[in-house]
Amino acid sequence: MSSNSNGTEDVNRYLAGAPEPQRATLETLRTRIRGILPHADEAMKYGMPAFILQGKGIAGYAAFKEHCGYFPMSSEVLTAAGDAVDGYEISKGGLRFAVDRPPPMTLVRKLVKLRIAELADVTDGARLEFFGDGQLKATGRMKDGKLHGNWKWFRQDGSLLRAGRFVAGEQAGTWTTYDRAGEVSRTTRF
C-alpha cells in the first residue's frame, strides 16, 4: 500500500462520526475490501470513504440513517454484476445494504473485480491493468483498440519489468527490460 496517511485519517474521522451499528458494519466492509486490495490507498471521494488505485476510485462506502451503501465508482459495475446483486436495492451509483449486515465477501470481491476489469477495458485513452490484489500490472494508452504510445509493465512485487512504445499496436523504438533491482537487463530495438 502506498503512503496515504492523510486519506486514512480522513476515513478514520468519517467512521468515528458514524452512528452504531453503521460504524461497525462499515468497519467490517472496510476490512473486507482491504483484504482484497492491500495495495490500495484510502481517501475521501465524493464525501465518502473509498479505496483508490492509481487515482481511480474502486470502492466507496457510506452510512445513512436507514441503510449503508456500497459504491463501485461506476454504475456499469452494478449492471455487470447481474443476479449477484439480487436482493439489494440498487440506485444508479450504489448498492444499499442493512445497517447491521455488510454485503458478503463473495459479493464485495466480485464488485471489486468488475471495477478493476473496467479500468482495463479501454479502447481509447489511458488504460490501467492490475493484479488481483490491486498492485499495478501495466499502464499505457490505447487508440482505436490498439496499444499506442508509451507502456510499462510491472512485476507483482511492484518493480518495473519492461517499458517501450507502441505505434498502432506494433512495438516501436527501443524496449527495455529491467531486473528486480531496477537495472537494465536487456534492450531491444524495433
Largest sheet: 7 strands, antiparallel
Q: Level of helix content?
A: 25-40%
Named at the architecture level, the CATH assignment of the largest domain is Alpha-Beta Complex
Unreliably modeled segments: none
Number of strands: 13
Number of domains: 2
Gap from first CA to last CA? 35 Å
Task: Give the key terms.
alpha+beta; seven-stranded antiparallel beta sheet; Aspartate Aminotransferase, domain 1; six-stranded antiparallel beta sheet; 190 residues; single chain
Give the topology.
Layout (H helix, E strand, L loop, with lengths): L4 H13 L4 H15 L4 E5 L2 E6 L2 E8 L4 E4 L3 H6 L8 E2 L4 E3 L7 H16 L4 E6 L5 E8 L2 E2 L1 E6 L5 E8 L2 E9 L5 E6 L1
Antiparallel strand pairs: 1-2, 2-3, 3-4, 4-6, 5-6, 7-8, 8-9, 8-10, 10-11, 11-12, 12-13
Helix pairs in contact: 2-4
Question: Nutshell version of this structure?
Answer:
The protein is of the alpha+beta class and 190 residues long.
Question: How would you characterize the overall build of this protein?
Answer:
The protein has 190 residues and is of the alpha+beta class. The protein has two domains: 5-119, Aspartate Aminotransferase, domain 1, CATH 3.90.1150.200; 122-189. It is built from four helices and 13 strands. Strands 7, 8, 9, 10, 11, 12 and 13 form a seven-stranded antiparallel β-sheet that branches. A hairpin with a 4-residue loop joins strand 3 (56-63) and strand 4.
